[in-house]
Design goal:
Elements (H helix, E strand, L loop, with lengths): L1 E7 L2 E8 L3 E5 L6 E2 L10 E6 L2 E6 L6 E3 L2 E3 L1 E4 L4 E4 L2 E7 L2 H27 L5 H8 L3 H15 L2 E4 L7 E3 L4 E5 L6 E2 L11 E6 L2 E6 L7 E2 L2 E2 L3 E4 L4 E4 L2 E6 L6
Parallel strand pairs: 3-4, 14-15
Antiparallel strand pairs: 1-2, 1-11, 3-5, 5-6, 6-9, 7-8, 7-10, 10-11, 12-13, 12-22, 14-16, 16-17, 17-20, 18-19, 18-21, 21-22
Length: about 250
């Protein structure tokens, strides 16, 4: 079985199990996945199963659909694919929600171990076996993930609040560009609302600033539009088209 999570902005508004053969997406009352927006057709798209695979097809003559940032009339679907329809995003997942909940629980458990290991690393004074034993209890891949997470935590970062891979972008350069163009440092699934070069992050001394460069949608910080340059503070929320991020200042070096 597969399912889709439906997001409007950063809010997940619906989880729909694809427990049949076909599902209509649109604003019509009979839609299996209802998207309440007058810019969306009553029957805007169809998600359907073809053999063992899932596909999505555009039905609307008014506006298109985007799969992973590319405008499509029809496309196959795989784990993690993102379908953009108007200002909604549908995240496609294979498997069942209960399986993914169990996976999330395992990830959370591993992250709890990460926090405990980090705390012990901060507090230990003279070695000892406890930290080593607990570190060795983690698998090799978990340790790699921990190292990467720790590296990100030491850097100023953008944490994605909407579905995206990767979901953490360390700001490692003094100038970072955001948009759907291939040369952007932070490349976003496009749709029609995200510009090729949509915004630019710049570091001046200890401060970071965001500058709106272009795109159909105006960049927002904490829900407010701006069309010039804005200084960022810790925990600020940045909105670019359907994408949301949290600006996180660097933690103290571990």
């Amino acid at each position: 079985m597969a399912y889709v999570n439906v997001f409007h902005g950063r809010d997940r508004i619906l989880s729909k199990n694809l427990d049949g053969v076909q599902f209509y997406v649109g604003r019509g009352e009979g839609a299996d996945i209802l998207l309440d927006n007058p810019a969306i057709s009553r029957n805007h798209a169809l998600i359907y199963r073809e053999g063992e695979r899932w596909r999505v097809k555009r039905l609307s003559l008014r506006s298109g659909i985007y799969v992973n940032g590319g405008k499509m009339n029809e496309s196959s679907l795989k784990e993690g694919d993102r379908i953009e329809i108007g200002d909604y995003m549908l995240a496609f997942h294979e498997g069942t929600q209960s399986e993914d909940d169990a996976k999330a629980a395992r990830i959370n458990a591993a992250m709890s171990q990460l926090a405990q290991v980090a705390d012990e690393g901060l507090n230990k004074s003279g070695g000892g076996g406890k930290l080593l034993d607990r570190t060795l209890a983690l698998g090799t891949q978990q340790l790699r993930n921990i190292r990467e997470e720790m590296k990100n935590l030491r850097s100023v970062s953008l944490m994605a609040l909407t579905p995206m891979q990767p979901d953490c972008f360390a700001l490692t350069k003094s100038i970072m560009t955001i948009g759907k163009a291939a040369q952007c440092d932070i490349r976003l699934p496009g749709g029609f609302t995200v510009g090729s070069l949509h915004a630019r992050l710049t570091r001046h001394g200890e401060n970071w600033y965001i500058e709106h460069l272009g795109g159909l949608s105006v960049t927002k910080v904490n829900g407010r539009k701006f069309e010039d340059t804005r200084r960022l503070n810790d925990e600020d929320e940045i909105e670019i088209g359907p994408h949301r991020f949290r600006f996180v200042q660097a933690l103290e070096t571990i």
